[in-house]
Design goal:
The protein is an alpha+beta fold. The chain is built from five helices and six strands; from the N terminus they run E-H-H-H-H-E-E-H-E-E-E. The chain is about 35% helix and about 20% strand. The two termini are about 20 Å apart.
C-alpha cells in the first residue's frame, strides 16, 4: 500500500519528550484492544484534518494509553502544566508534548518528579522535509560502501 501525505502545516513549538527506561515492543501490542478504540481514533483523525493537532494528539494519546496499558500520568501532568498537545509516542512507552517556554519549564519539572525512571529530551518541531538515503557498503557506486547517496 502506497502512503500519501494528506495535508501538511508548518508549526513552531518547543517539544519535550519523556523517554522511560522501560521498553515496549510493537510485537507485544494487543491488536484487539487497539481495534476497540478505533472509532475514537477516527475522531482524532478528523480533528487533525481540521488543523486541531493538539486536540487530536491528546485524544489519540489517551486512547492508546488505555489500549496499550500505559499509565496516562505523564499526559495528565502535562495538562496540569497547561500543555495543549501531549500524546503517547507510537506504541509507547515515550510521551511527547508541544510546549511554550512557560509550560516547558513546568512540565520538565513535573515529569522529573514522576516515579518513573527515564530521561527528558528538549527539542523543537522540525519543519524540514525528510530525505531518503541509500547507504552502500562495498566501496563502489553500484552498491558499494562508505558514502550516502540522496535517494530522492
Amino acid at each position: 500500500m502506497k502512503k500519501e501525505l494528506i495535508m501538511r502545516e508548518e508549526k513552531d513549538s518547543g517539544v519535550l519528550i519523556f523517554v522511560p527506561e522501560e521498553k515496549a515492543f510493537t510485537a507485544d501490542t494487543d491488536v484487539q484492544r487497539s481495534r476497540l478504540v478505533a472509532p475514537w481514533v477516527d475522531i482524532a483523525y478528523e480533528l487533525a484534518l481540521a488543523s486541531k493537532f493538539e486536540d487530536a494528539m491528546t485524544l489519540n494519546g489517551f486512547l492508546y494509553c488505555a489500549a496499550l496499558n500505559f499509565s496516562p500520568e505523564p499526559m495528565l501532568k502535562a495538562l496540569e502544566c497547561n500543555v495543549r498537545g501531549v500524546s503517547l509516542s507510537g506504541t509507547g512507552p515515550s510521551f511527547v508534548a508541544l510546549v511554550d517556554r512557560t509550560a516547558e519549564a513546568e512540565l520538565y519539572r513535573a515529569w522529573s518528579e514522576l516515579d518513573i525512571e527515564g530521561r527528558i529530551i528538549k527539542t523543537r518541531i522540525n519543519n524540514e522535509p525528510a530525505y531518503k538515503y541509500d547507504y552502500n557498503v562495498n566501496g563502489n557506486e553500484d552498491g558499494g560502501g562508505g558514502y550516502l547517496r540522496d535517494g530522492t
